[in-house]
Design goal:
Blueprint lengths: L5 E6 L5 H12 L6 E6 L10 H9 L21 E5 L2 H10 L6 E3 H5 L13 H27 L1
Parallel strand pairs: 1-2, 1-3, 3-4
Helix pairs in contact: 1-5, 2-5
Amino acid sequence: MPKYQRVLFVSESGNSRAMIASAIFNKKAYGSGIKAEARGTVVLFPEPGNPKAVAIAKSHGIDLTGFMSSALKEDEFGDDVLVLTMTERRKFTIYEDYKNAKNVYSIREFADVIGEPQDPYGGDLTEYGAFYEDMEKTIDEIISKINKNEEE
C-alpha cells in the first residue's frame, strides 16, 4: 500500500497551477491508487478553472470541464496525505494557518528541483503552455520519488 493515498496540490486560488498539477499527476499516476486534487488557500467560493489553463490541459488530452476550485480544509491533513504547494511561501503560510498541517512541501522541494514554478496568471497561452511542460517534468520527479519511497 502506498505511503500516500492522496496528493493535494495547493496554490492561492486552486484553479490554475494547482489544478494543472493535479490533473497531470492523475494522468501520469493512473492506476497507482493515489489520487491528486487541487486546493486553494484563498477560496471564498468555488470557481471554475482558469480558461487558459483549461485550454492548455485540453490540448494535452486532459478534460477539466466542470472543475471547481476548493479551499484547503483543516481536516484534510493526515499521515497518508502529501501536500505540495506551488511556492515556499505558501508552504510556510500553511504551517502557520493550519494547526493540523503535516507532510507539506513546496512542489520543487519535494521533487528535488531548484527554483519555483512560474506563475502564468495574466500571461498568454504560450506562458500557460510553458508552465504545463515544466509541471510535467516536475510531476515525473514527484512520482519517481513516491515510488522510490515505497520500495524502501
